[in-house]
Amino acid sequence: MQRLREQSVFYLDENLCDCKPIHEVFDNEGLKYERHLAYFPRATTDPEWLSFVGQRGWIVITKDKSQRYNPLEKAELRKYGIKQFAFQSGNLSAAEMANILRVNMRKMFNLINKHPPPFVASLTKSGVNPRTIT
Fold it and tell me: pTM above the 0.85 mark?
């Protein structure tokens, strides 16, 4: 599991990439992460950045729950075997999202280790729940 932690890179999509409390969680855990705006301008289409992330094997963290339903985005998730974690509620504060990440990090790595990609999992106050890419 330590090797998985060391090799994993998380990608914070546009709506999370400037969230300091989330950065702090990754920094405190000693985990690598990349920010959307370090690579793309605002309003870059999801299929464009999903292919970029997928080619690198990065793990997506997002608030966008709809990607597993959108045909173009689903195609990218499948094509590149993307591992994605999406906050279940879009109305969470930065501190709430950071806390959800903090308390569920072990569960996230367990899912990454045991569940073959592609997958989308929801992040909630009660845990990490794999979802079907429909």
Answer: yes
